[in-house]
Design a protein that fits this description.
alpha+beta; 4 helices; about 110 residues; 4-stranded antiparallel beta sheet
Length: about 110
Amino acid sequence: ADLCGRLLAFLNSRSDIEIIGPDHMSDTRLPTVSFVVDGQRSSLIPPLCEPAGIGIRWGHFYAPRLVERLGLTDRDGVIRVSMVHYNTRHEVDALIRTLDAGLDGLSK
């Protein structure tokens, strides 16, 4: 919950990001976060993280009808970050720093 909460706080702090689903931690929220970036195709975001050794993905994740209904097909679906019990605070903070710098670079 702490790790996911850190990521959600970062995503919520950026006006160019829309979280798909609940935008805050709760007892029922799982630590898988999907989001899109305004004006960007989702497929452009994961490569920003790869040089730092961070693996996130993009696509429809076996829910193409949902992505279509959300109007995100032309944007290559969503970006997804999944955290599990072996992820660390350091890794989430590295993801946040990498996304922040990468997204700022895309907007220039």
